[in-house]
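In response to reviewer comment 3 from the previous cycle, which asked for concrete evidence that the modeling workflow produces usable outputs, we include below a single protein chain processed end to end. The sequence was submitted unchanged, and the resulting structure tokens are shown without manual editing.
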Amino acid sequence: MTTPLAAYRARVAAGDIAADSNQAEAAARLDALAEALANWKPDGWFKSPPPRGLYIYGPVGRGKSMLLDIFFEHAPVKKKRRVHFHEFMLARHGFLQKARLESAGAQDQLIHLAARQVADEARLLCFDEFQVTDIADAMILGRLFERLFEEGVVIVATSNRPPDDLYKNGLNRQLFTPFIAMLKQKLDVFELTGPHDYRLRQLMAAPVWYAPLGPAASEAMDNAWARLTGGAQPQAVTLDVSGRALRVERQAAGAARFGFEELCARPLGAADYLEIAERFHTVLLEDIPKLSPSKREEAARFRTLIDALYEAKVKLVASADAEPQKLYPEGDQSFEFERTASRLIEMRSQDYLALPRRDAEWKSGIVE
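The workflow returned the following structure tokens.
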């Protein structure tokens, strides 16, 4: 079986990603954890304690999601789950709310049930984009993770922040700091802080808007996807949008790829686009047609989608039948579309591409 370090080296040898000593050190740490997991005996007469997990943090674009993808694919554990941290916490809150309605148990008992449910599904839990900005999350994390560790769940997480900066300046943060101490006790902490922002480098390596549509634009989008994902195999994921499932068919390394019809010809709304903007740092959107009053609903959804991506500073790579200012030249939405065209042009600029993605607070500014 291929190990995480061997898989990382194979990507470097194939030219999918550039050699990086800091990434290689992180891959070696993940490789050691994979070996410990292979030797771990969580059940039976001769149980062994779970290995320490790993918390990898650093600036955007250093390869954290890519390394997590590699580790998860090659981790020798049958019961494992890779999940975006925001998505995970939404599901836990949903579970607790449902349990409160169905049971008179105390909060600690319900959190115990929530942790047991997670442990039954996964011995290894991999979190991408571990961040705490919500007081509701902050108030249950300590008890939830204490139970997860008691259940023998091994945790690997990536984050833009070191543990000590989680929930920084948050309300009643003193109640949250014991969780930070527990996290550092149970997980090794590794800083991934190479000199290069590979995501920005790949975004600036070629244009991010391809028009008109045709074979050349399709090939350019394929090349952009390969660059931005480091050759990773795309996977499907289901996002939770207020209890409703939103299927994303192609995602890898923090990027997602959609056709225009997938996002704008279906009855989706701001909440769906906000979830996509929070989940992915880069969106590839293909086959944007010229729009007109005959495609009124598609045009309105497209405007809402671009607003959500723009406010979150998500990066957009797109293929379209025309330049932004000519996508909706006339009709009853042409005035409103002028702002969308202006944003699309700005989103192609180097200044915009260099901006960090915003944390979750931006969502309150987008409405239906």
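The first helix runs from residue 4 to 13. We consider this sufficient to address the reviewer's concern, and the full set will be provided in the supplementary archive.
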